[in-house]
Amino acid sequence: MKEKLLIIFYRNPELGKVKTRLAAAVGDEKALAIYLKLATHTREVALASDFDRVVYYSHHVDTEDNWQENSFHKKLQVGNDLGIRMYNAFENAFRDGYAHVCIIGTDCLELTSEILSAAFEQLKAHDVVIGPARDGGYYLLGMKQLHKDLFANKEWSTNTVAKRTIVDFQNLNLTYSKLATLSDIDREEDLPKGIFKV
């Protein structure tokens, strides 16, 4: 059996189609530049960690971008909403034989390789692990077997997602671990001071 897989959900970087809430305040070009910096940070954090990695693209698989194919498997997200797309990605991972699987996006500048390692470590002793975000969502979800209920009946991109997911853990009698709460960058007020000079 394969041991650890990190799934990274990645939106293809197209002007006007990424960070739309942020773009409403700073403009499409600056929002795209910020998104690319966030993606670079995520990629570097993932590369500093010792597990298999797969990037799931939103619209088309790019074989010539900065996600090097010798370090990242590449696949396409499938499904009508975020929950279905994440469920399908986890299902693929477990079908491929992985024992511990975590998913992240590319929105969290505070994410570190140590946090990723801690998530996989927590899965040794718990059924699931969650990394809550300050906006009420989560920046990481991990599990060692598929739990379909975690991806249903959520209002994605709202401040209820992490809370409702933890309620699902409890209803399913799953043991769980919570990682440190971190900030996702979705709006202008989420931007760290002085970091994004674009």
Can I get a quick summary?
With 198 residues, the chain is of the alpha/beta class.
Low-confidence stretches: none
What structural class should be given to the helix and strand makeup?
alpha/beta
Give the helix tally.
5
Report how far the terminal alpha carbons are from each other: 44 Å
Strand content: 15-25%
Number of E-type strands: 7
Query: Mind telling me which CATH architecture this is?
Result: Alpha-Beta Complex
Report the mean per-residue pLDDT as an integer. 94
- Could you spell the SSE succession in H and E letters? EHHEEHEHEEHE
- Main pleated sheet: 7 strands, mixed
The neighbouring-strand order within the major sheet is 3-2-1-4-6-5-7
Can you put this structure into words, describing what you see?
The chain has a 7-stranded mixed β-sheet with strand order 3-2-1-4-6-5-7, with helices on both faces. The longest helix is centred in the first third of the chain and has 20 residues, at 28-47. The protein has 198 residues and is α/β, with parallel strands linked by helices. The mean pLDDT is 94. 31% of the residues lie in helices and 20% in strands. α1 (20-26) packs across α2 (28-47). The protein starts with a strand and ends in a 20-residue tail after the last strand.
